[in-house]
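Structure request: FecR protein domain-containing protein, Bdellovibrio svalbardensis.
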Amino acid sequence: MKKQWKRLVIAAVCSSSVFAGTYYWYKSTDLSSSSHGNEKPLAYVGKVVDDIQRRPASRLLWQLVNQGEPLYNGEAVRTSERGEVRIQFTDSDRYLDLEPESLIVIKKTEGEIALDLMEGSLFVNAKAGAADAAGAPGLVLSSANGKVDLSNASAALSKGRGSAVDVQVLEGKASLKGKDGQSKELTTGSFGALGSSGFEFDRNNLKVLTPVQSKPIAMDAEDIKEIPFQWSGFPPNTEVALWVGPTRKSVKFLTKAPLGKSDLSTKLPFGKHYWKLVASTPQGQVVGESPIYRTEVIARYAPTVVFPTSDAEIPANTTPFDMSFKWQKGEDTRSVTLEIWSDAELKQKIASKTFSTEESYTLPALKSGTYFWRMNSYYIDSDKPVLGKLQKFSVKPVAQVRVEAVKPPVVPVNVAFTMPENKPFYYVGTPQINLAWNADKVDQVSGYRVKLHGENEDPATATSIDIKENKLTTPVAKPGRYIASIEALDKEGQVLGTSISQPLEVSPLPNIAAPGFIPAQGVLQAGTDGRSQLEWTSVEGAKEYWLTVKKDGKELKRTKYTTNATALRNLLPGEYDVEISAVDTYGRLSEVSPTRKLLVPDKSGVRAPTLKKIKVN
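Returned structure:
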């Protein structure tokens, strides 16, 4: 018993020592990496989406990175499957956007900032800050095959086949210099690749006319239209197909243009999309393919009207009457415009005012009558306004106004969704949406009205649901894209405030991945004692695993496990087939792993007894 306690004490001391040593090493390297002395950062972390990790030059471990943190010479940054990050350089307005599933190392050598793209893709905007970057270090992308000077360009770059780097110059010019010393220049609209065999260029002179690659597509959230795609340079008499996907690796066929046409139009949901054009003959033979481009579709909103509400009757104590208008601006709005007419045909405009920061306005000397008005938004990147909904109100003497119209002043309430943006609502069984929101001045709010409609449906047909709480779970007809908004109501049902409409996506919960045996390759083999030790990868979301053993195509046993390892006994010598699958918490079965061979040898490791002495009487 004493020996057992002694072993336990020794094991505990050793384990604690290893943990303490590891912790001390981690903290010491952390302090050394965060103490850069007088070293100037090369860049700062801008907007961050999902999990982004960094690895300082002096460390082996990856750390989460947050907005505003500095990046120093030799540091690496990588993004997750849905992760994105903007890296803002300190010397000017130049920046880069690192796309999902990408890894980059930032270095400074010989008066240049060098980007080493290990995998994935990125967008560099150096042209915008070229004037401010006079005297600043050059900006280049380095690779095993040479380097690309991006100091005066806006460009999209991606790791192509093998070690090749694909370059698309969206604006300005970039130069490619191979490891053999030869150089080429790319200008606006050019596409090229820097590979191990030298320079490769687009031989078909393909040009994409629309959409413009360097600008997002802004669209009225209440009036979704088709996006035009136009191009030139594909061989004549070919059919051009549009492939679209959420990542570069997952683009799929969406639609195609008629034979010989060089344009098509289609609707895309709000968000970021990767796409390419593929030209083929009527017989299906592919004859040309464009690079993969990235386009972002942005929702634009008209101002939210606070007062007067639709069809309101305004009591006027005096004639003429000073009429007050109130609204709420959306994000990124450059200015808003108030338009007022005195007739339903909108021919007699009595006021048109533009505001940059104000959210209210009083129109003096308004006579009794019915008026029509709307609020429009102008955004920084567009001169075309987003038109608000046309509404009407009436100004009447107090004696002519319905009694219920004489109410205390409306107290504006701000309503905003609290769910994460751009995150799908996954479901099992019936499609549904889980909404949550917050509002200020809750003492004035008696309830809420949820409005929900399909992305391509008329907002006038939206489903309305009145609810007291600030959350709602509601089924929807089918998976797809929806638009939701929330109205805060007082006890009389009057609208106190409206949220900005938010796009939502409802999708079936994907099946969990199939587990795989460890090791991933080769024949699995039992020990000489006949015991087959099997192990497989753990799958996130799995509740249990099913192991199937077959011989000559016939199933011998199928067993359930809650762990990712087991030991099989009592298998006769021979060759077996084994498969493993997983079941999630909803009882759904994953795909079955590829069949693996299990070899049970016919030789035992146990020695037979021997006779040491024979005595014969």
